[in-house]
Write a structure and sequence with these properties.
With 341 residues, chain A is mostly helical. Chain A has 15 helices and 6 strands. Chain A has a single domain, classed as ABC transporter involved in vitamin B12 uptake, BtuC, CATH 1.10.3470. Chain B has a single domain, classed as ABC transporter involved in vitamin B12 uptake, BtuC, CATH 1.10.3470. In chain B, a hairpin with a 2-residue loop joins strand 2 and strand 3. The chains are: A mainly alpha (341), B mainly alpha (351).
Chain lengths: 341, 351
């Protein structure tokens, strides 16, 4: 068992270490972290802070993918939640007050609950394929976000709101702490209770789980709602970090980064077994990749080519067909696949 | 053929292949005539209703030119929707089409800029897009990668290659391209159509004939109905599945050329979200996302619905462009719910 876990996390860890080494060679000061005005500063801290929204979205995505689903609407939810929060704060007479900011945050999260509920209903009760069900919100969501902001970029000047994406607490950026708390909470909830196992069983075989007494529908509903809430918090971080809501570009392609992080982390897209630590490593790899492209001096636009190559490589490594061809029997994929083929 | 497939499938309910859940796929084939065409009929009714509302509300709306402009302005989307129909009919999905269109315009514009002759460029661009589609198909089949993730990788790759060629927009000044972009074929006084629109319509007709009358077309439907049954019947499943993505690549290449006629430039950021429009058009046109049922002509109607939404919004004037996205999302939701209702009803009636 430990050998299996070791092997699953070996590649993402190796990738992360390689990227880190490359960065330190390219820029010797990369690994240094200095203390200034009671805050920690340094490139590593920046990677952690910029990677927090991706990590949160990837966290929700991991659970969705574990149930054999996918959530394409997270980018749109990021845009919607940022737009709602910024519109409320910008429209209030006292943008700096904690009360207003709290109302804005709670409203954004509440709307995300509804949006996640819509996705969950379509997938679990109506029975629409997850790609398609979430595609609807992906298409309409940006329109809704633009409707909220009326097509403008809403900028806010609220010190209280800025704390989420740009503030520090106990030496560390607040966004890193928020991501860490949500990550730890999810890990505890899925690994110390039966929830994680139930999610995996739904992903491996929804029908069999239902017959075994697992409430597949409510579990599916839960993961989509959770994914939307994670995306909403990520949206708050992004809009707070740049102190503005951009309905067009906030969270653009973040669903792809999140899926990539999950896949790199070793969670199979076919559902079933998932690894939260893997997703954490995957999200860090994605963020490091972006940072590396900048620090090594490659045109940032080429990041996409690297990401494409990474997706292909990881998919081929995970592919059961390839491992069959290499004649090395592995049991990484869920049983259902092997029964069929 | 359609009569035998459900018998293989329905009583025993063999385990479904991995990937997205696909309940009750073959059942709609057994449903009566109305069930098969119900979704398309709803689309036609919607199209007629939208057009009559538009004609009632705005002056100059009910002119033949407005209808023809739907084809002129959406020629590239029509071709994309044709390719997407093939893929979705087999139960797959192709997310790469938008960025392949962008890549095609970039390759065309940059080659023309360095002085290559236009006909050679057109052939090269279409060949490049086709090869990309072929590679995606091979990856999906031989490495058992999900269509969604393989085409996602192709999407990244094509977009990245665009940036590699140039970050800036490249204008096309080639005489053949500009001539084709400005050419207008007069059908009647003050009523004209572009060559691009005619090409798009020709491709729709060709695709409809291929799907209906060739062995390849029938195999596409059979795979979408039930891949295992198709394999057991001895149909060339592997070849057809790879070919379907190649066809989608080919269509993306042609759409890219038509798009460069339309804009006379190549730009890395064109076509973001175009894949969603193509998927929406196919779904609204009555093709089941689970595969097996649908028509190319339906996809054409789907594109016309999307085009009509945009036309109505531009005629309205006061509505902002983001309403387009919301309305398309809403329509997509309604049509998917209708699809679910239809499949569910026909499944219970066939038992």
């Amino acid at each position: 068992m430990t050998g299996l876990v070791h092997r699953r996390l070996f590649w993402p860890t190796a990738l992360l270490v390689a990227l880190l080494a490359l960065n330190i060679i390219a820029e010797p000061g990369f690994a240094s972290v200095r203390l200034q005005d009671g805050h920690l500063f340094g490139s590593i801290i920046d990677v952690l802070r910029n990677g927090s929204p991706t990590l949160l979205v990837a966290l929700g995505m991991t659970l969705v993918i574990a149930t054999r689903g996918i959530d394409l609407s997270v980018g749109a939810v990021v845009a919607i939640s940022g737009s709602i929060a910024c519109t409320i704060i910008a429209g209030s007479p006292d943008p700096g007050s904690i009360g207003v900011v709290a109302v804005a945050i709670l409203t954004a999260v509440a709307v995300a609950l509804v949006l996640g509920g819509v996705n969950g209903t379509l997938v679990s009760i109506v029975g629409v394929q997850p790609i398609v069900a979430t595609l609807i919100l992906m298409t309409a969501g940006r329109g809704i976000a633009m409707l909220i902001t009326e097509g403008q970029i809403i900028s806010v000047s609220s010190p209280a709101y800025q704390v989420i994406g740009g503030g520090f607490f106990l030496l560390l950026p607040v966004s890193v702490l928020i991501a860490a708390v949500i990550f730890a909470g999810t890990a505890l909830l899925t690994r110390k209770t039966a929830l994680g196992m139930l999610i995996e069983s739904v992903g491996i075989n929804p029908e069999a789980s239902r017959l075994a007494g697992v409430r597949s529908r409510s579990i599916m509903m839960t993961v989509y709602v959770f994914s939307a809430v994670c995306a909403a918090v990520a949206g708050l971080m992004i809009s707070s970090n740049v102190t503005a809501a951009d309905a067009n570009n906030a969270g653009l392609f973040i669903e792809l980064d999140a899926i990539l992080a999950v896949v790199i982390g070793g969670t199979s897209l076919a559902g079933g077994r998932f690894s939260l630590i893997g997703t954490l490593l995957g999200a860090l790899v994605i963020q490091m990749l972006t940072t590396t492209v900048y620090s090594v001096g490659i045109a940032p636009e080429l990041t996409l080519i690297f990401k494409a190559l990474v997706v292909v490589a990881v998919c081929l490594l995970q592919s059961p067909a390839l491992s069959r061809r290499l004649a090395r029997p592995r049991r990484l994929t869920p049983l259902t696949k092997e029964v069929v083929s | 053929m359609t009569a035998t497939v459900p018998h293989l499938d329905s009583p025993a309910r063999p385990p479904q292949r991995g990937g997205a859940g696909r309940p009750g796929r073959t059942s709609i084939l057994t449903s009566p005539f109305l069930g098969k065409y119900a979704s398309v009929l709803i689309t036609v009714a919607l199209l007629v209703a939208m057009f009559s509302v538009g004609a009632g509300r705005y002056d100059n709306f009910a002119s033949p030119q407005v209808v023809l402009n739907l084809f002129v302005d959406n020629a590239f989307l029509i071709v994309l929707a044709v390719g997407m129909t093939f893929v979705i009919l087999t139960g797959g999905i192709d997310l790469s089409v938008g960025s392949v269109v962008a890549l095609s315009t970039m390759i065309a514009a940059s080659l023309l800029q360095t002085g290559w002759p236009a006909p050679v460029v057109i052939v090269l661009v279409i060949a490049a897009a086709t090869v990309l589609g072929l590679l995606v198909g091979l990856m999906i089949h031989y490495f058992d990668v999900q269509p969604f993730i393989a085409t996602l990788a192709a999407m990244f790759l094509a977009r990245g290659l665009c940036y590699l060629i140039s970050l800036k927009s490249i204008a096309i000044t080639d005489p053949l391209f500009t001539e084709l972009a400005q050419a207008r074929i007069q059908l009647a006084p003050r009523i004209s159509i572009t060559p691009a629109a005619l090409i798009a319509v020709a491709i729709v007709v060709l695709a409809a004939l291929v799907l209906k009358y060739t062995r390849f077309g029938r195999t596409v439907y059979a795979i979408g109905g039930n891949e295992q049954s198709a394999r057991l019947m001895g149909l060339p499943v592997v070849r057809t599945k790879v070919l379907v993505y190649t066809v989608s690549g080919l269509c993306s290449g042609i759409a890219g050329i038509l798009f460069s006629f339309y804009t006379l430039s190549g730009y890395s950021l064109t076509g973001i979200g175009l894949e969603l429009d193509a998927i929406a058009a196919v779904v609204i046109g009555g093709t089941l996302l689970t595969g097996g049922t649908g028509f190319v002509l339906g996809s054409l109607l789907g594109v016309l619905v999307l085009g009509l939404i945009q036309t109505v919004i531009s005629f309205e004037g006061t509505l902002s462009s983001w309403w387009t996205k919301i309305v398309i999302g809403g329509l997509l939701l309604i049509f998917i719910l209708i699809q679910r209702l239809l499949t569910r009803r026909s499944r219970t009636s066939s038992r």
